[in-house]
Amino acid sequence: MKWRGRQRSTNVEDRRGAGGGLGGGFNPFGRTAGTGGPRIQIPTGGGGIGGIGLVIVIALIGMAVFGINPLALLGGNVVPGGGAGTGSSTQGQPLPEAGQDELADFVAVVMKETENLWTEVFAQSGDTYAPPVLILFSGQTEGGCGVADARTGPFYCPVDQRVYIDLSFYEQLRRQFGAPGDFAQAYVLAHEVGHHVQNLTGVLPEFNRARAAMSETEANAYSVRVELQADCYAGVWANFVGQANLLESGDIEEAINAANQIGDDTLQERMQGFAVPKTFNHGTSAQRKAWFQRGYSTADVGQCDTFSVAQP
Ligand SMILES: [Zn+2]
Fold this sequence. Notes:
four-stranded mixed beta sheet; two-stranded antiparallel sheet; alpha/beta; binds zinc ion
């Protein structure tokens, strides 16, 4: 992506370690910098994990690949409405000046481009887009959905309307998930911003309300539709930056590869050797690719209605 020199979003808060570098912060879990990034733990059925521990582990898996914070979903602790920035104290600082920190510059430019798209889309229906705040942290940080932990991957918290990311996730995305490239990284953020849009449009609050009465399997199927819509929105965003001539050769392929690598079936087969479809909550690789491409090829958020199709 041709992002250099582009305007950065001002809605980015830096809570990384004092040094500002990856892994520079205090990490109570003892993960040292440069040792391969966050781990994803899976229940093995071999005992030792039960009750609430199991719930938490499943929740962590659920959010491992940039979902909505399921702890907030499980707790029903979602505050509908409320402006961005409500709900928790500011612990961070503005980003370093442009040119000091390449990855921070990159994510801030991506966020700005999402603001440009969604401001335009909301304006078309006479609405004003209130962007989320992106929180950069290292290790752990406190937020409206509880403690954000690097091990769980990036997520959107509807309670405080913030996107949380430990930038070391991008190393994990590249190495562990086999999804290299700056546009794979951009796709991650655009997907999370998609969840923020869903929060504003009411899709997310409705999901949280409805899932309380659902079985786990039903809620997973509903979650898939929510996630695929966020993928479609990320595709619309990719088209938008393409129209601004910011795409480089290979960018779209990077995003599609990322969507493929983080499909539920692909992830489960990699992690445990087999896939259990009723546990899918983000969508299969084929679904994620298809909805990203649908958004990308149509450039129309109206084409991202994953809820009215029989099979997304
Ligand atoms: Zn998601």
